[in-house]
């Protein structure tokens, strides 16, 4: 992987420093898990909860485009 100090990322159509993206993902990933756990504990179908969590993660990844700065 490239040195993250020299990389930018296109995320949701906007250029951001890769380091900033790391911090963003540190917040998003646990939040997605917490929502999934909350729904599962409330008796929702775990297959559906897992499907939504996976779709959220896939949407985040598909919004990324790594570029050299």
What's the topology here?
Layout: E1 7-11, E2 14-17, H1 18-41, H2 46-62, E3 64-68
Antiparallel strand pairs: 1-2, 1-3
Can you walk me through this structure?
This protein is α+β, with helices and mostly antiparallel strands. It has one domain (4-68). It is built from two helices and three strands, in the order ββααβ. It has helices spanning 18-41, 46-62, and strands spanning 7-11, 14-17, 64-68. Strands 2-1-3 form a three-stranded antiparallel β-sheet. β1 (7-11) and β2 (14-17) form a beta hairpin. α1 (18-41) runs antiparallel to α2 (46-62). It is elongated and about 40 Å long. The model has no long low-confidence stretch (mean pLDDT 79).
Tell me the strand order in the biggest sheet: 2-1-3
The chain-level structural class is alpha+beta
Strand content: 15-25%
Distance between the termini: 14 Å
Rg is 15 Å
| Count of helical regions | 2
C-alpha geometry: elongated
* Helical residues, percent: 55-70%
Mean pLDDT: 79
The largest pleated sheet is described as: 3 strands, antiparallel
């Amino acid at each position: 992987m490239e040195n993250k100090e020299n990389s930018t990322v296109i995320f949701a159509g906007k250029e951001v420093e890769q380091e900033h993206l790391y911090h963003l993902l540190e917040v998003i990933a646990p939040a997605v898990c917490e929502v999934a756990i909350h729904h599962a504990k409330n008796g929702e179908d775990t297959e559906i909860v897992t499907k939504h969590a996976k779709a959220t993660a896939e949407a985040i990844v598909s919004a990324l485009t790594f570029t050299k700065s």
